[in-house]
Amino acid sequence: MSDPALKKKSRPPLLVANWKMHKTIAEAKQFVETLAPLLDKSQLVYLAVPFTALATIAADCKALPVSVGAQNMHDEAAGAFTGEVSAQMLKEAGASFVIVGHSERRRLFHEDNAFIARKVRRALIEGLRPILCIGETQEERDNNLTQNVLREQLTACLEGVLPEEMERLTLAYEPVWAIGTGKVATAKDVKAAHGFCRDLVAKKWGREVAAQLPLLYGGSVKPEGVQELIVLDDVDGFLVGGASLSPIAFSEIIKQSSKLVL
Ligand code: PGA
Predict the structure, then answer these.
(1) 218 Cβ inside 6 Å of ligand 1
(2) I need a labelling partner for 231 at 20 to 30 A (CA). Which of 122, 164, 214, 217 fits?
Protein backbone atom coordinates (compact mmCIF):
# COMPACT_ATOMS: atom_id res chain seq x y z
CA MET A 1 0.00 0.00 0.00
CA SER A 2 1.29 3.38 -0.99
CA ASP A 3 -0.32 5.83 1.45
CA PRO A 4 1.83 5.97 4.63
CA ALA A 5 -1.09 7.49 6.59
CA LEU A 6 -2.90 4.15 6.26
CA LYS A 7 -0.09 2.11 7.87
CA LYS A 8 -0.78 -0.35 10.63
CA LYS A 9 1.08 1.04 13.64
CA SER A 10 -2.11 1.76 15.58
CA ARG A 11 -3.75 -1.57 14.80
CA PRO A 12 -2.72 -4.36 17.20
CA PRO A 13 -2.87 -7.92 15.84
CA LEU A 14 -6.34 -9.44 16.14
CA LEU A 15 -6.77 -13.21 16.15
CA VAL A 16 -10.25 -14.65 15.74
CA ALA A 17 -11.03 -18.34 16.29
CA ASN A 18 -14.03 -19.50 14.29
CA TRP A 19 -14.97 -22.89 15.70
CA LYS A 20 -17.88 -23.40 13.30
CA MET A 21 -20.07 -26.37 14.38
CA HIS A 22 -17.45 -27.80 16.72
CA LYS A 23 -17.11 -28.14 20.50
CA THR A 24 -19.62 -28.97 23.16
CA ILE A 25 -19.69 -26.78 26.26
CA ALA A 26 -17.35 -29.21 28.05
CA GLU A 27 -14.88 -29.19 25.13
CA ALA A 28 -15.03 -25.41 24.89
CA LYS A 29 -14.28 -25.05 28.62
CA GLN A 30 -11.31 -27.38 28.24
CA PHE A 31 -10.00 -25.27 25.33
CA VAL A 32 -10.15 -22.07 27.41
CA GLU A 33 -8.41 -23.74 30.35
CA THR A 34 -5.53 -24.80 28.12
CA LEU A 35 -5.32 -21.49 26.23
CA ALA A 36 -5.50 -19.15 29.25
CA PRO A 37 -1.92 -19.62 30.57
CA LEU A 38 -0.53 -19.26 27.04
CA LEU A 39 -1.88 -15.72 26.55
CA ASP A 40 -0.45 -12.35 27.43
CA LYS A 41 -2.20 -9.02 27.18
CA SER A 42 -0.54 -7.76 24.00
CA GLN A 43 -2.87 -9.55 21.61
CA LEU A 44 -6.54 -9.15 20.85
CA VAL A 45 -8.04 -12.61 20.94
CA TYR A 46 -11.63 -13.32 19.90
CA LEU A 47 -13.42 -16.67 20.17
CA ALA A 48 -16.44 -17.19 17.89
CA VAL A 49 -18.11 -20.10 19.64
CA PRO A 50 -21.32 -22.08 18.98
CA PHE A 51 -24.47 -20.48 20.43
CA THR A 52 -24.79 -23.20 23.06
CA ALA A 53 -21.34 -22.47 24.54
CA LEU A 54 -21.65 -18.68 24.44
CA ALA A 55 -22.85 -17.87 27.95
CA THR A 56 -20.53 -20.37 29.66
CA ILE A 57 -17.44 -19.37 27.70
CA ALA A 58 -18.16 -15.64 28.03
CA ALA A 59 -18.26 -16.14 31.81
CA ASP A 60 -15.09 -18.26 31.78
CA CYS A 61 -13.25 -15.58 29.76
CA LYS A 62 -14.28 -12.61 31.94
CA ALA A 63 -10.88 -12.36 33.62
CA LEU A 64 -8.91 -13.15 30.44
CA PRO A 65 -7.79 -10.88 27.56
CA VAL A 66 -10.32 -12.65 25.35
CA SER A 67 -13.58 -11.47 23.75
CA VAL A 68 -16.32 -13.96 23.03
CA GLY A 69 -18.79 -13.74 20.17
CA ALA A 70 -21.09 -15.58 17.79
CA GLN A 71 -20.76 -16.95 14.26
CA ASN A 72 -24.13 -15.75 13.00
CA MET A 73 -27.38 -13.99 13.97
CA HIS A 74 -30.69 -12.93 12.46
CA ASP A 75 -31.26 -9.43 11.16
CA GLU A 76 -34.61 -8.79 12.86
CA ALA A 77 -34.83 -7.66 16.47
CA ALA A 78 -37.34 -10.42 17.33
CA GLY A 79 -40.20 -12.34 15.74
CA ALA A 80 -41.51 -15.58 14.28
CA PHE A 81 -38.21 -16.93 12.95
CA THR A 82 -38.05 -20.51 14.19
CA GLY A 83 -34.52 -21.59 14.96
CA GLU A 84 -32.97 -18.14 14.73
CA VAL A 85 -31.05 -16.09 17.32
CA SER A 86 -31.22 -12.31 17.76
CA ALA A 87 -28.47 -9.78 18.44
CA GLN A 88 -30.01 -8.96 21.80
CA MET A 89 -29.95 -12.64 22.83
CA LEU A 90 -26.28 -12.84 21.86
CA LYS A 91 -25.43 -9.73 23.85
CA GLU A 92 -27.25 -11.00 26.91
CA ALA A 93 -25.31 -14.28 26.66
CA GLY A 94 -22.05 -12.30 26.71
CA ALA A 95 -21.18 -11.81 23.02
CA SER A 96 -19.32 -8.66 22.06
CA PHE A 97 -18.96 -9.42 18.35
CA VAL A 98 -20.60 -11.46 15.61
CA ILE A 99 -19.29 -12.89 12.33
CA VAL A 100 -21.54 -12.01 9.37
CA GLY A 101 -21.36 -12.97 5.72
CA HIS A 102 -19.14 -16.02 6.13
CA SER A 103 -18.91 -17.86 2.81
CA GLU A 104 -20.41 -20.99 4.39
CA ARG A 105 -23.50 -18.93 5.30
CA ARG A 106 -23.60 -17.45 1.81
CA ARG A 107 -23.15 -20.77 0.01
CA LEU A 108 -24.90 -23.35 2.21
CA PHE A 109 -27.65 -21.13 3.64
CA HIS A 110 -28.18 -18.88 0.62
CA GLU A 111 -27.47 -15.61 2.37
CA ASP A 112 -27.18 -12.70 -0.04
CA ASN A 113 -25.52 -9.30 0.30
CA ALA A 114 -28.82 -7.56 1.14
CA PHE A 115 -29.52 -9.92 4.05
CA ILE A 116 -25.93 -9.59 5.27
CA ALA A 117 -26.20 -5.79 5.06
CA ARG A 118 -29.28 -5.93 7.32
CA LYS A 119 -27.35 -8.09 9.79
CA VAL A 120 -24.48 -5.59 9.84
CA ARG A 121 -27.00 -2.82 10.53
CA ARG A 122 -28.70 -4.83 13.30
CA ALA A 123 -25.38 -5.70 14.94
CA LEU A 124 -24.39 -2.02 14.97
CA ILE A 125 -27.77 -0.92 16.36
CA GLU A 126 -27.55 -3.49 19.17
CA GLY A 127 -23.92 -2.73 20.03
CA LEU A 128 -22.26 -5.87 18.68
CA ARG A 129 -19.05 -5.52 16.65
CA PRO A 130 -19.63 -7.09 13.22
CA ILE A 131 -16.83 -9.02 11.53
CA LEU A 132 -17.82 -8.91 7.87
CA CYS A 133 -16.39 -11.67 5.65
CA ILE A 134 -15.91 -11.16 1.93
CA GLY A 135 -14.04 -13.15 -0.69
CA GLU A 136 -14.10 -14.62 -4.18
CA THR A 137 -14.67 -18.20 -5.33
CA GLN A 138 -12.14 -20.17 -7.38
CA GLU A 139 -14.18 -19.59 -10.51
CA GLU A 140 -14.36 -15.84 -9.92
CA ARG A 141 -10.61 -15.77 -9.33
CA ASP A 142 -9.95 -17.76 -12.50
CA ASN A 143 -11.99 -15.20 -14.40
CA ASN A 144 -10.05 -12.27 -12.90
CA LEU A 145 -13.12 -11.11 -11.01
CA THR A 146 -11.59 -10.91 -7.53
CA GLN A 147 -11.64 -7.12 -7.27
CA ASN A 148 -15.15 -6.88 -8.74
CA VAL A 149 -16.44 -9.38 -6.17
CA LEU A 150 -14.70 -7.65 -3.28
CA ARG A 151 -16.04 -4.27 -4.40
CA GLU A 152 -19.57 -5.60 -4.81
CA GLN A 153 -19.67 -7.47 -1.49
CA LEU A 154 -18.04 -4.69 0.50
CA THR A 155 -20.20 -1.95 -0.98
CA ALA A 156 -23.47 -3.88 -0.75
CA CYS A 157 -22.93 -5.33 2.74
CA LEU A 158 -21.91 -1.94 4.17
CA GLU A 159 -24.65 0.06 2.43
CA GLY A 160 -25.61 3.03 4.59
CA VAL A 161 -22.99 2.43 7.31
CA LEU A 162 -21.76 5.78 8.64
CA PRO A 163 -18.07 6.65 9.13
CA GLU A 164 -18.48 6.67 12.92
CA GLU A 165 -20.11 3.21 12.76
CA MET A 166 -17.23 1.90 10.65
CA GLU A 167 -15.05 2.26 13.74
CA ARG A 168 -16.79 -0.79 15.18
CA LEU A 169 -16.37 -2.93 12.08
CA THR A 170 -13.74 -5.57 11.31
CA LEU A 171 -13.30 -6.81 7.74
CA ALA A 172 -12.09 -10.31 6.91
CA TYR A 173 -10.84 -11.23 3.45
CA GLU A 174 -11.52 -14.93 3.06
CA PRO A 175 -11.01 -16.30 -0.45
CA VAL A 176 -13.57 -19.11 -0.67
CA TRP A 177 -11.09 -21.42 -2.42
CA ALA A 178 -8.73 -21.19 0.58
CA ILE A 179 -11.27 -22.01 3.30
CA GLY A 180 -10.79 -25.49 4.72
CA THR A 181 -8.82 -26.58 1.65
CA GLY A 182 -5.24 -26.32 2.91
CA LYS A 183 -4.55 -23.81 0.09
CA VAL A 184 -3.39 -20.52 1.61
CA ALA A 185 -3.43 -17.41 -0.55
CA THR A 186 0.06 -16.19 -1.39
CA ALA A 187 1.43 -13.06 0.25
CA LYS A 188 1.11 -11.37 -3.15
CA ASP A 189 -2.60 -12.23 -3.41
CA VAL A 190 -3.30 -11.16 0.16
CA LYS A 191 -1.38 -7.91 -0.23
CA ALA A 192 -3.30 -7.07 -3.40
CA ALA A 193 -6.72 -7.94 -1.95
CA HIS A 194 -6.16 -6.17 1.37
CA GLY A 195 -4.68 -3.09 -0.28
CA PHE A 196 -7.66 -2.97 -2.62
CA CYS A 197 -10.15 -3.23 0.26
CA ARG A 198 -8.45 -0.57 2.38
CA ASP A 199 -8.24 1.83 -0.57
CA LEU A 200 -11.91 1.25 -1.28
CA VAL A 201 -12.83 1.98 2.35
CA ALA A 202 -10.66 5.13 2.20
CA LYS A 203 -12.52 6.30 -0.90
CA LYS A 204 -15.97 5.67 0.56
CA TRP A 205 -15.53 6.56 4.25
CA GLY A 206 -12.33 8.57 4.37
CA ARG A 207 -8.68 7.88 5.15
CA GLU A 208 -9.06 8.02 8.92
CA VAL A 209 -11.71 5.30 8.88
CA ALA A 210 -9.57 3.19 6.54
CA ALA A 211 -6.48 3.67 8.70
CA GLN A 212 -8.13 2.25 11.82
CA LEU A 213 -10.04 -0.62 10.15
CA PRO A 214 -8.80 -4.06 11.26
CA LEU A 215 -8.39 -6.17 8.13
CA LEU A 216 -8.02 -9.91 8.69
CA TYR A 217 -7.05 -12.73 6.37
CA GLY A 218 -8.80 -16.09 6.62
CA GLY A 219 -8.38 -19.35 4.73
CA SER A 220 -6.33 -22.37 5.90
CA VAL A 221 -4.25 -20.26 8.31
CA LYS A 222 -1.70 -22.41 10.15
CA PRO A 223 1.08 -21.38 12.55
CA GLU A 224 3.74 -21.92 9.85
CA GLY A 225 2.27 -19.44 7.37
CA VAL A 226 1.49 -16.58 9.71
CA GLN A 227 4.74 -14.62 9.78
CA GLU A 228 4.88 -14.14 6.04
CA LEU A 229 1.42 -12.53 6.06
CA ILE A 230 1.40 -10.55 9.30
CA VAL A 231 4.34 -8.44 8.14
CA LEU A 232 2.24 -7.05 5.29
CA ASP A 233 1.06 -3.49 5.89
CA ASP A 234 -2.60 -4.24 5.39
CA VAL A 235 -2.82 -7.50 7.32
CA ASP A 236 -3.92 -6.91 10.92
CA GLY A 237 -4.61 -10.47 11.98
CA PHE A 238 -6.37 -13.69 11.07
CA LEU A 239 -9.72 -15.41 11.11
CA VAL A 240 -8.83 -19.01 11.82
CA GLY A 241 -11.08 -22.03 11.32
CA GLY A 242 -9.54 -25.51 11.50
CA ALA A 243 -6.33 -24.53 13.30
CA SER A 244 -8.31 -22.68 15.99
CA LEU A 245 -9.79 -25.92 17.29
CA SER A 246 -6.51 -26.75 19.01
CA PRO A 247 -5.52 -24.33 21.79
CA ILE A 248 -1.86 -25.14 21.13
CA ALA A 249 -2.02 -24.39 17.39
CA PHE A 250 -4.14 -21.29 18.00
CA SER A 251 -1.79 -19.95 20.68
CA GLU A 252 1.11 -20.52 18.28
CA ILE A 253 -0.72 -18.45 15.65
CA ILE A 254 -1.23 -15.72 18.27
CA LYS A 255 2.45 -15.78 19.19
CA GLN A 256 3.68 -15.74 15.61
CA SER A 257 1.37 -12.82 14.79
CA SER A 258 2.59 -10.68 17.63
CA LYS A 259 6.31 -11.16 17.30
CA LEU A 260 7.01 -9.11 14.27
CA VAL A 261 4.46 -6.39 14.73
CA LEU A 262 4.91 -5.22 18.30
P1 PGA B 1 -10.08 -22.50 7.79
O2 PGA B 1 -11.43 -21.63 7.97
O3 PGA B 1 -9.03 -21.81 8.61
O4 PGA B 1 -10.43 -23.86 8.31
O5 PGA B 1 -9.77 -22.47 6.34
C6 PGA B 1 -11.42 -20.24 7.97
C7 PGA B 1 -12.82 -19.71 8.06
O8 PGA B 1 -13.73 -20.33 7.52
O9 PGA B 1 -13.07 -18.67 8.71
Answers:
(1) yes
(2) 164
**Residue 185 beta carbon below 6 angstroms from any ligand 1 atom:** no
Q: Which residues belong to the active site? A: 102, 174
Q: Which residues contact residue 23 at a Cβ distance below 8 angstroms, ignoring those fewer than 6 apart? A: 31, 49, 50, 53, 245
The best mutation among 98, 171, 220 to test binding of ligand 1, ranked by most ligand atoms within 8 Å of the C-beta, falls on: 220
Say if CB 95 and CB 128 are below 8 A apart: yes
Q: Is 146 in the pocket of ligand 1 (CB under 6 A)?
A: no
**Strand, coil or helix: what is 89?**
helix
Ligand 1 pocket, mutate which of 239, 246, 250, 253 (most atoms under 8 A from CB): 239
How far is Cα 188 from Cα 186, in angstroms, rounded to an integer?
5
pLDDT tens-place string over residues 60-83: 999 999 999 999 999 999 999 999
The CA radius of gyration of the chain, in Å to the nearest whole number, is 17
Q: Is the pTM of this model over 0.85?
A: yes
Alpha helices for 6-68 (secondary structure H): 25-35, 51-60
pLDDT band at 84 (very low <50, low <70, confident <90, very high): very high
- 216 alpha carbon to ligand 1 midpoint, in Å? 12
Q: What is the DSSP string of 159-216?
A: TT--HHHHTT-EEEE--GGGTTTS-PPPHHHHHHHHHHHHHHHHHHH-HHHHHH--EE
- Residue range 18-36: average pLDDT? 98
Give 5 Cα–ligand 1 centroid separation in angstroms. Answer: 31
